[in-house]
Amino acid sequence: LSERLAELHELPAETADGVRVRLSANIEFPHETKAAVARGADGIGLYRTEFLYLSSEEEPSEEDHYNAYSEVVRAMHGRPVVIRTLDLGADKMGHRPLAENEHNPCLGLRSIRLSLRNLDLFRPQLRAILRAAVHGDIRVMFPLITTIAELRQARMLLNLVAEDLKDADVPFRSDIPVGMMVEVPAAVIMLDMFAKEVDFLSIGTNDLAQYTLAVDRGNEYVADLYQSSDPAVLRLIQSCVKISKSSDVPLSVCGEMSSMPGRALLLLGLGVRSLSVPPSAIPTIKKTIRSVSITRCEEIAKRAMTLEAAREVDMYLLNQIAELV
Ligand code: PEP
Ligand code: MG
Question: Catalytic residues per the record (predicted)?
Answer without folding.
Answer: 254 (proton donor)
